[in-house]
Every structure is written in C-alpha cells, then in structure tokens.
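Design request, tokens follow.
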C-alpha cells in the first residue's frame, strides 16, 4: 500500500503536517501539492487546532523544491498549472488564520524555501541549508519567493540570494533574518512544539487578528496599517476570551481561552 504524501499528527491543539516523500528529498509533485492543500483547507475550519507545524520526513531534507523528474515530463501548459497550484497553496498557508511554523529539518531549496517563507515562523536545524536556486536552472522563483523574501530580509540581500542562486546555512539564515531560531537537529521538533505550545496559551481570536493586521498592514502605508490594526482590535473587545484574560489576571491564575 502506498504511503500518504502528507502525514498529519496531532499533539493537543497542534497539528503537525509532514511532507512524506523522503526518497526524493520531499520534493513537490502534483500529488503532494494537492494533498497539502487539502490538509490546509481542512485545518482552516478546525476549531480544535490553533497552531500548525510543517516539516519534512527524514533528517536530510525539509523540501528540495519541485520534483524535477516530474517537471521534465510536463508540457508548457502543465508547468503553468503547477506554478499556479503551488503559488495558490502557499498563499493559502500565508493566509491561514492560525500560526504556521516551518520546522526546517534539512535542505530547503527553491519551493522548499518558498514554503518556509509562506509560514509565519521558521525554526531551522543547525544542519539546514536554504536557498532560492531557480536562476541556476534558468527560471525564477515562481511560488512567491521574489515577493516574500525581500519583504522578510530586505531588497538587497534578497536580490543577492536570488541572482546568485546560492545556498545559506542555518547560521547565515539566522543572521539575515530568514529564520527565527536555530536548533540542534535532535531538538528541532521539541523546540518547534515548545513555541507552538506557547502560542496555544494565548487567545486564538487575538492571534488570528494579530496575524491579519501584520500581514495586511505591512502592504499599506502606516496610516492605513494603523486603521487595520484598530479594526482588528475592535473584534477582540466583545469576546469572552478578553473577559477571561482580565478575570485570570485578577484571580492570579492561568487563563483558559476558548476562541469565543
């Protein structure tokens, strides 16, 4: 029986999605793109899950990008379909109303780095290697890399990495702001889960609104961004969670947020 290309596990309110094609360094083919899309859309409306972690199977690769063996069999129209599918998938991950953490457990090239960029937070194993290497294949990043990388690390450094197609190790990725944290390989998932658990202690409506305000506010001028923030704040005011936060502070106890 064939193994699923996406494996889902749950730990409390945390969903772990594992890219499961280790024999080809977890590279994306159409089946894996569609499998991940299905999981993301299901999690969007799952009230039991508050944080998502994405990782690759095995200890060598997070995701090596597109499956070039499959790509070689596609005609021009099918390549365009692949690019639109992966681009829409990564946009769906970026817009998921729950935080998504990329646990970069090894090589992340091309679409693998673009997947990490679409996530909210990135934790890399010390052995990880990342890069947008598409120009070395005479193409460009097509799943958001030319847009998300400069927004994250700045225009000049992003142009350097995209124009040269070079890889960066975990230490450099941390130094340039590409990842939030570097972990020993054996501790990567423990650290990702620890971060996820901290997030699950917060108010889920507040997290959803904070993510919305950051993502959309950054695309505008400061005045408009502040208006977006205000509107997002107003949504939290009538919630039961806000009252629970005040009550728990008064009673000197840990709050229990229900997303209401």
């Amino acid at each position: 029986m064939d193994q699923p290309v996406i494996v889902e596990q749950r730990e409390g309110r945390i969903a772990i999605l594992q890219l499961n094609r280790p024999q080809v360094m977890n590279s994306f083919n159409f089946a894996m793109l569609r499998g991940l899309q299905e999981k993301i859309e299901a999690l969007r409306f799952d009230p039991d899950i508050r944080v998502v972690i994405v990782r690759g199977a095995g200890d060598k690769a997070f995701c090596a990008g597109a499956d070039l063996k499959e790509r070689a069999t596609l005609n021009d129209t099918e390549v365009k379909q692949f690019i639109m599918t992966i681009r829409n998938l990564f946009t769906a991950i970026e817009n998921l109303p729950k935080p998504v953490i990329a646990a970069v457990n090894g090589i992340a090239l091309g679409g693998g780095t673009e997947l990490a960029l679409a996530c909210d937070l990135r934790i890399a194993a010390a052995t990880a290697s990342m890069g947008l290497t598409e120009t070395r294949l005479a193409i460009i990043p097509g799943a958001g890399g030319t847009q998300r990388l400069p927004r994250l690390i700045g225009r000049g450094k992003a142009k350097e990495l995209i124009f040269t197609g070079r890889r960066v190790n975990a230490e450099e990725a941390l130094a340039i702001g590409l990842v939030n944290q570097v972990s020993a390989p054996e501790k990567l998932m423990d650290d990702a889960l620890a971060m996820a658990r901290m997030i699950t202690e917060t108010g889920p409506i507040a997290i959803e609104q904070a993510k919305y305000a950051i993502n959309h506010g950054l695309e505008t001028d400061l005045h408009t961004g502040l208006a977006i923030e205000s509107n997002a704040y107003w949504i939290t005011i009538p919630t039961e969670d806000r009252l629970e936060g005040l009550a728990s502070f008064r009673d000197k106890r840990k709050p229990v947020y229900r997303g209401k």
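Comment from the thread starter after seeing the answer: thanks! Residues 6-200 form a domain with the 2-enoyl-CoA Hydratase; Chain A, domain 1 fold (CATH 3.90.226.10).
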